[in-house]
Amino acid sequence: MDPIVEAVALLLGFLGWVMVGVAIPNRYWKTSTVDGSVITTSTLYENLWMSCASDSTGVHNCREFPSLLALSGYLQASRALMIASVVLGSFALVTTLIGMQCCKAAEDKPVLKGKLAGIGGVFFILQGFCTMISVSWYAFNITQEFFNPLYPGTKYELGEGLYIGWCSGILAICAGVCLVFSCKTDTEEKPAYAYQPSRGTIYSAGATSRRDAPSTYDKNAYV
User: What is the purpose of this protein (predicted)?
Assistant: First the structure.
């Protein structure tokens, strides 16, 4: 594999992994504004863990969701997928670092290092898919409630945490694709001996034929 491709893929994967860590605690996964007077105007926003509200004076209060079992199914699934994304990204970074050519670990086994780089790419792809599924599923429920005229509750819009998650998933998938489709897991080794059936003689692969070798004797060497 080209070392430049390895470095670029590792950088993209690392950025995607960091952005997952930024998206999970971000409070603005969905936002809504309740208009009123200057005093009563407030902004409501939620994420995977809590619901918050802030008024026009800058005072904000947050309340964590009381029970895990009382949450809706998509919210529980989004939590699990985001946590799985962090774990898969950690595995991807470790295996990719070991599989890089600049790493001294197992440097005498290029085939193994190529396979490790490919496995790291698979982990990055899985990380990206977990993030994309979690964020997209959450966004789908927001839009479904927003465009439902019979929905009685507060209607929310997409928050910045979702966009961070989408960017993270795209970066992780790009890194994984670069590693999987660019890694070389086999090496071309030249045989130590080559058999010449027409001459009936076995020659060394690096040796030259006696017929083709230039003569070191001239006519004056013969009596």
Answer: Claudins function as major constituents of the tight junction complexes that regulate the permeability of epithelia.
Closest CA to 185 of 103, 112, 124: 112
Round to whole Å and give the CA distance between 16 and 4: 18
pTM: 0.74
Q: What is the pLDDT of residues 25-83, one digit of tens each?
A: 998 999 887 654 445 557 888 889 888 888 777 777 888 888 777 788 888 899 999 99
Alpha-carbon Rg for the chain in angstroms: 30
* Residue 182 near residue 60 (C-beta atoms within 8 A): no
Instruction: Give the integer Cα–Cα distance in Å for 124 and 144.
Output: 30
Distance separating alpha carbons of residues 142 and 29, to the nearest angstrom = 10
Class of domain 3-182: mainly alpha
Tokens of 34: 């309740």
Split at pLDDT 50, 70, 90, the class of 164 is: very high
Return the domain boundaries, the chain.
3-182
